[in-house]
Amino acid sequence: MPDLRFPRLLLAFIAGVMLALQPVSAGRAEAQVSGRAEPVTGPGVTTIGNIATNAKVELRSGPSVLFPVVGTLGYGTRVKKGLCIGGGSARWCEVSTMDGKLSGYVPGRFLVEGKVPTPDDDLAGGPDYWSVTGLASNERLGVRLEPRSGSDVLATLKNGEIVRNLGCKISGGARWCKIRSTTGMDVTGWVSGSYLRESAAPGAGGGGASPQYYFVRGLSAGDTLNVRTKPSTQGDVIARLSEGAKVRNLGCEQSGQTRWCRIRTTGGVEVTGWVNARYLREK
Q: DSSP labels for 233-264?
């Protein structure tokens, strides 16, 4: 008997390209995995992501929404990744749970793959400047002598302060960044990377830190703004934003003649990607 597996996958892929792929919150399923995974820390570790923390992704028996649902995978679930077919929003990947109880296909955009942990002595990469964010109104971020929570505090920073990035590393399971102050007393030390996001240089773009949120503005009637996997028109389109959409600002950078901003959608399913800054406004 001839092997019909490849023709079936090909037909399913073609059908999948023609259909919109939508994540689900739960739905009727034959089996369900809801436990959160351990943090993604190394190569070969893949988890379900790019969705709300309380959402789930349907696991199907084939690479298309035409195939039946065989289970659901919650945010943070660790999986083993297999063969992927297609590209962009039509990319499907074969996955199985770590215990082997569930296997099937999910849209590739819901898979988050771990990277090699940053060595303790690696201080390379990152933007030139950070902006302090995420503190409560009465909180201050401690600038410490060493990259650990018990180290001496040299100074404190408040929300919105811009500091120079001297490199980040993983220490004690947490991300620490070495910074140098840009205003007031000249201080160099370590701060928790959880409270930093990319910023323009002090005084650039009208001064002060960049906004926490942007709104999509300036689109022609009926147009949408593409959210891409990288700051380039060569990046795959993973979502589209309509006029007036509110997004979280994760930092901007210049690429060629175009300024791109990394954003995260708000409300419903969370998508993180890059958009053309030309269509972003603070209000």
A: TTSPEEEEE-TT-EEEEEEEEEETTEEEEEEE
How far apart are alpha carbons 165 and 188 in whole angstroms? Answer: 10
- 202 in the same domain as 180: yes
Q: Which of 231, 167, 234 lies closest to 196 in space, CA to CA? A: 167
- The whole domain housing 258 covers 213-281
The C-alpha atoms of residue 108 and residue 148 are separated, in whole angstroms, by 36
Instruction: Please report, in angstroms and rounded to a whole number, the separation of the first and last CA atoms in the chain.
Output: 63
* CA proximity to 252, closest of 207, 211, 219, 224: 211
Work out the average pLDDT over 247-262: 81
**Dmax over Cα atoms in the chain, in whole Å?**
79
Could you give the count of Cα atoms lying within 13 Å of 109 in the half-sphere of its Cβ?
A: 24
For residues 109 and 75, membership in a common domain is answered with yes
Compute the average pLDDT of residues 2-27. Answer: 47
Both 201 and 218 in a single domain?
A: no
Written as six digits, the tokens of 190 are 């370590």
Is pLDDT at 44 greater than 70 in this prediction?
Answer: no
| Cα angle for residues 101, 104, 108 (degrees, 5° grid) | 125
Segment among 85-89, 120-124, 135-139, 143-147 with least mean pLDDT:
120-124
Read off the pLDDT of each residue in 154-166 and give the average, rounded to a whole number: 87
pTM: 0.34
d(CA 97, CA 103): 6
Q: What pLDDT shows up at residue 8?
A: 55
How far apart CA 208 and CA 226 sit, in angstroms, is 28
Q: Judging by DSSP bridges, how do beta strands 188-192 and 280-281 pair with one another? A: unpaired
Which of 53, 91, 18, 76 is CA-nearest to residue 264? 53
Token look-up 């940053």 returns 118
| Residue 203, token pair as written in the block | 């005084």
